[in-house]
């Protein structure tokens, strides 16, 4: 990276600096499947006319000043350096899905060439044989919500070529009206928030120091971000997840997702290493949580405004989500009930907001190295990471070419297992990225997750029929 030479350079945000440290060097990959062959010229034209070609982050080089602090410096973009067609097969004897996943893994090992100081930190790879676009974007440019919102501006609905993809409107909280008899409920809610937040603060600090998960066949640790990777995809139908959700009162899709992960991990561990994990062992996940004032994907115009609650950038906190290993769980829905109970407690705390604010404070007062160490220790002392983002409800197209899937994964975390789910047009695809020397068979793990949902669906159907 070069050094700034003019006063127009813009310093990075604290979170941007954090995700550029070598221990937490995070890069986002988004694979977008297309129904028809890719038109390179049309896609280049689409990108050139998009906000990507005018947004300051996407038009800036990463440079350093004499003190080593990172800055953005505006530059001119060369479309041919950012859009890279890949002709011919990229892997022999593999399905398109497996070939794309292998290409994504290979891209994650090419970071030295990607993180140069001669072009902005993003590119788009066009896999012609697989009819797939792969966006590779450094996390310093923005979080998943920002980046996906920018991409959706380029797309239109298949059924209505003039209409933008549907972005779920923000849910408005209903005000509860109650008389004097309701005051004690409000007091109890406040006390609950204080208590659960305090519990998290203690756990957060302990995890950042020495408390860690017990060793299991899927454990993580320092240095794992550098280990070779494999990638597999688990596929779910949202209707199946909704059917499971309806079997447990007030459950959400996120509850179902974590129930699937809990059940799937138990299945995998029982198959991989029978009797190797002690009953009740805690396996902790780190969930990435959107902290924007409006939930879900955002209107790009809102992200570009100078509104601290909505503006462009990284606005992500973390939750520590425990899974407890139990060999015998006769009712598959029990995984959902336990997941819902745990997540309900998390919702009553300010855990995600606290993690974001403490990271900002440490970065501001103690510097990037201290903030990196804090976050890195938390990831090293837990077992897996997970994120979930809801995409468009309807089928969409880019330059008139219908999109068949949208899949996201992130590289650079010291976890042996990272899970990223993205829903689109009635489906939900979860990218399962593993350290292949620890989890050599991610395809089997994907099947464990898929089977877990099917078992929950069957149990939900039985439970609902018994009530009739």
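^ Assign residues to that structure.
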């Amino acid at each position: 990276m070069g050094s700034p030479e003019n006063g127009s350079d813009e310093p990075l945000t604290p979170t941007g600096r954090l995700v550029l440290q070598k221990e937490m060097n995070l890069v986002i990959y988004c694979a977008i499947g297309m129904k028809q062959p890719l038109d390179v010229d049309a896609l280049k034209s689409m990108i050139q006319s998009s906000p990507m070609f005018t947004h300051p982050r996407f038009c800036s080089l990463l440079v350093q000043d004499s003190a080593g602090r990172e800055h953005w410096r505006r530059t001119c973009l060369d479309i041919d350096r950012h859009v890279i067609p890949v002709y011919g097969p990229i892997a022999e004897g593999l399905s398109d899905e497996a070939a794309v996943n292998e290409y994504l893994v290979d891209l994650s090992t090419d970071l030295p060439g990607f993180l140069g100081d001669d072009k902005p930190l993003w590119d788009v790879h066009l896999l012609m044989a697989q009819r797939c676009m792969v966006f590779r974007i450094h996390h310093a440019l923005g979080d998943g919500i920002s980046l996906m919102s920018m991409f959706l501006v380029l797309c239109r609905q298949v059924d209505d070529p003039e209409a933008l993809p549907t972005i779920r409107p923000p849910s408005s909280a209903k005000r509860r009206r109650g008389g004097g008899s309701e005051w004690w409920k409000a007091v109890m809610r406040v006390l609950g928030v204080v208590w659960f937040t305090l519990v998290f603060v203690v756990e957060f600090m302990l995890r950042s120091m020495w408390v860690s998960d017990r060793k299991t066949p899927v454990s993580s640790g320092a240095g794992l971000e550098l280990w070779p990777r494999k990638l597999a995809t688990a596929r779910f139908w949202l209707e199946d997840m909704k059917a499971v959700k309806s079997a447990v009162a007030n459950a959400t899709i996120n509850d179902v997702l974590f129930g699937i992960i809990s059940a799937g991990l138990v299945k995998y561990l029982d198959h991989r290493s029978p009797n190797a994990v002690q009953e009740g062992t805690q396996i902790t996940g780190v969930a990435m949580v959107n902290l924007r004032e409006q939930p879900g994907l955002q209107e790009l115009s809102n992200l570009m405004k100078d509104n601290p609650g909505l503006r462009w950038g990284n606005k992500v906190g973390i939750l520590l989500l425990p899974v407890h290993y139990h060999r015998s769980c006769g009712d598959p829905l029990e995984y959902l009930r336990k997941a819902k109970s745990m997540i309900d407690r998390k919702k009553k705390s300010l855990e995600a907001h606290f993690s974001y604010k403490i990271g900002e404070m440490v970065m501001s007062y103690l510097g990037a190295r201290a903030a990196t160490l804090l976050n890195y220790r938390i990831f090293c002392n837990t077992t897996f990471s997970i994120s979930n983002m809801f995409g468009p409800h309807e089928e969409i197209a880019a330059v008139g070419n219908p999109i068949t899937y949208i899949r996201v994964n992130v590289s650079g975390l010291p976890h042996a297992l990272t899970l990223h789910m993205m829903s689109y047009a009635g489906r939900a695809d979860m990218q399962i990225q593993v350290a292949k020397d620890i989890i050599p068979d991610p395809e089997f793990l994907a099947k464990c997750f898929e089977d877990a949902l099917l078992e929950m669906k069957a149990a939900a159907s039985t439970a609902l029929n018994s009530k009739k």
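Residues 143 and 314 are 5 Å apart (CA to CA).
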